[in-house]
Amino acid sequence: MDYLKGLNPPQREAVEHTEGPLMIIAGAGSGKTRVLTYRVAHLIYQKGIDPFNILSLTFTNKAAQEMKHRIERIVGLEARNTWMGTFHSTFAKILRVEADKLGYPSNFTIYDSDDSKSLIRTIVKEMKLDDKVYKQGTVLARISGAKNRLISWETYLQDPHIKADDETAMKPKMGEIYSTYQKRLFKASAMDFDDLLFNTNVLFRDHLDVLNKYQQRFKYVMVDEFQDTNLSQYLITKKLAAVHQNICVVGDDAQSIYAFRGADIQNILNFEKDYPDLHVVKLEQNYRSTKNIVQAANSIIAKNKAQLKKDVWTQNDDGDAIELIKASSDNEEGRIVATTIFEEKNNKKLLNSDFAVLYRTNSQSRSIEEALRKMNVTYKIVGGLSFYQRKEIKDLMAYMRLVVNPNDEEAFKRIINFPKRGIGDTTVEKILVAAYEHDIEIQEVLNNASSFLTGRAVSTVEDFNTMIRSFRMEVERKDAYDASTFIAKQSGLLRELYQDKTIEGLNRYENVQELLNAIKEYVDNPENEDKSLGSFLQEIALLTDNDRDKDTTDAVTLMTIHSSKGLEFRYVFVVGMEEDLFPSQMMMQSREDLEEERRLFYVACTRAMDKLYLSYALTRYRYGRLLNCEPSRFLEEVDPACIKVNKRMGSSLPSSSFAQELREGRNGFIGLKKPAVRPGVTAKVHTPSPDFKPSNTNHLQAGMKVEHQKFGYGLVEKIEIEGANKKAVIQFDNFGEKTLLLSFAKLHIIG
Length: 751
Fold this sequence. Notes:
The longest helix has 22 residues, at 456-477. The strands form five sheets. A seven-stranded parallel beta sheet has the order 11-12-10-13-14-9-17. It is an alpha/beta fold. Strand 20 (725-732) and strand 21 form a beta hairpin. It contains 32 helices and 22 strands. Helix 1 (9-16) packs across helix 2 (32-45).
């Protein structure tokens, strides 16, 4: 079988170079999934490598399953023996086997973010702290960041720099919360998502025999989306590959957009320093997009200084020019986008699913949604409430979790009185306090309820405990489907939902039935050797957002740019191309921040196959106020040869032709009239002075000199106040007169 026949020369080189460290720089749309698939197949089919000795790490289970099925078509059922999955699922599998080395049972629970936030909320309440200061999301993000940098709670408490940071942030108790959080997780026999990586590092650090076992097993290690790895992930893979050195990393530094999750672009930029004999292959031919889109994307990313150089190109047609849409408001932007989708779909016989609307923040979807609804265009929002986050699903899953792991505190609190069985909050608190004070497990308190409780609470708690123990007996002798069906019926949960005859109640009942269907599908799948309820719960806990999206409805996709990574659509709209929105005003503090935003723009543009639209509004409601907007600096960076202006103008826009504006803007700003500048002065982008720091503008007055990050030096001509808004009219040396909203403008007052 000549499966290599369809590969281009660099792709073939990447597949056939199997020994030693290899880095594959894969440009957008360059066929990296195909290369990864064929590389594993080549190792098995041509090199005779045992599939059990191959570890392939991805960022979604969906990608892993797709690759495994493709490999299976080449090498047969042997493909199923490769270790292939996400970082979290793969190392959760190892931790199940080695859990006792860390003091955990093999059936430990994996907490999702809701479970973690609930536990943090409980801890903050117990410590009598202000939950507005110690917001559960903020605390969890801080703990997550520490774990991704391999900072344990012990180190956190002892580090003076971390302590100083927390005190500056007015959150001095953060370390104490982290400490209590980890102790409670351990007591509940639970790990959160970050623990799966953190504890794998601890396992390999403290148990060299275990590390050696897996080093010998994984003779070939492959990592996809390497630019998205954090320190914890990088150290694990580096340790595993240390013996055989057959490590292959695949990625594109131009698509590194997850710094806020802890991803470190330096992992890919500095990979050669760790492996001096590294072989590098560049996949530069784009098979996805038109020449216009590829050329535009190249012109954008070329502005970044920190990057691995590559020349992405395509043999595809030139395609349509990128269309620039200028709207008077965010509502009009939505109307123009919806109208364009409706017309293109009908004129070219396209599906709704051929279109995607991408935005920087979730809040931008409102105006797009309203406009699509008015046009009767079906749409779906990716990143909304997932199936497994619905209350009724989490309720039944909590029953299953407590049956499998009797120490699961969050599951226990969720279902001990649901459906209602007369066990109040006071009784629940007594049970938890008894467990903490006597340093025993919740299960032990339940087994000896009469020793810790009084009155009617004793019998109701004993009845609950008897029910859970009967469920446990069923789980031990039945597969996941039969056990979960038994639990759903005998717990009273199905009956509770069935009795609610409202539309919402019927939907909740149907959702639970759908969960049971999913469990049946899991049990019937021949690829799942372990049919137990515990195995099913682990798989569900490790699903990523992309894995959960099984909606097959023909719909326009609305999503954030971050969520779009790895996807492609024929027609893509990138909306909200305005300064302080994209790039975000939160990402203006350093060159690194700005370059991450530019990579995000690059990712957005390279999702498009046939046609790309960029849109901006002159006014937009943000934070409850109507703000004047200026077009994003990123629009200036797109090669003008690739752009044309959309002729659909709103009624409130000036009547001058867009084409004329575009011609005039060739040397200035695309799609805009040239800025008003003083005669003989050429407008150019300003480089802020080294000591630039935004000043407090509360007392800004006419006659003061200021510096702006983009417009440079200027003189304040007057201050205007409109309601709660305070504006400054400033005459800039190189950019003429500008009116800036002081609550957002970053100005350095010179004098």
